[in-house]
């Protein structure tokens, strides 16, 4: 399994401890050992029956997509994904002006079945791999990247959630192709 991107290194536990270039699968776990989180997002919540999906949202002429997890045990807020900072488009091919824009306020997600605010989170990250990263982003002597940066330039990320109150499971609650 690939190493986690640097911004997630202190808040994810991989399913498989062996490092290679296979997709990353794991759970979100706070450094305080908490595994239950309030889910926060900057995006558009789309609801279809008992299924909720968070997608990008346009605000003041710009597109945003941010997923955060707030640990009630210690109060720490983990930025799990911000399209302007993470993945290929946020890490390698980022837009400086978009990064300078203030992020809209977070919305809190609540379970559609029981209205609970506590969830467990699984995440899945796919990458084109080390060789592709080296070829595409380190092809000249002016490159600002190092070979070990490849996990930060992942191609897609997705989040599955399970409500702590009623066990409602939602696959692909949020996710983005970041290339």
List key phrases describing it.
mainly beta; 179 residues; four-stranded antiparallel β-sheet; single chain; 3 helices; five-stranded antiparallel β-sheet; globular
Task: Please tell me about this protein's structure.
There is one protein chain. The chain is mainly β and 179 residues long. It has one domain (6-177). The chain is 10% helix and 37% strand. The chain is built from 3 helices and 13 strands. Strands 1-2-11-12-13 form a 5-stranded antiparallel beta sheet, with no helix packed on it. The longest helix is centred in the C-terminal third of the chain and has 8 residues, at 130-137. It starts with 11 loop residues before the first strand and ends with a strand. The mean pLDDT is 95.
Gyration radius from CA atoms, angstroms? 16 Å
Low-confidence stretches: none
State the end-to-end distance: 20 Å
Question: H/E series, N to C?
Answer: EEEEEEEEEHHEEHEE
Into which percentage range does the β-strand content fall?
Answer: 35-45%
Q: Number of folding domains?
A: 1
Helix content: 10-25%
Shape: globular
Count of DSSP helices? 3
**Average of per-residue pLDDT values:** 95
Category from helices, strands and their pairing: mainly beta
- Tell me how many strands there are: 13
The spatial strand order of the largest sheet comes to 1-2-11-12-13
What profile does the largest beta sheet have?
5 strands, antiparallel
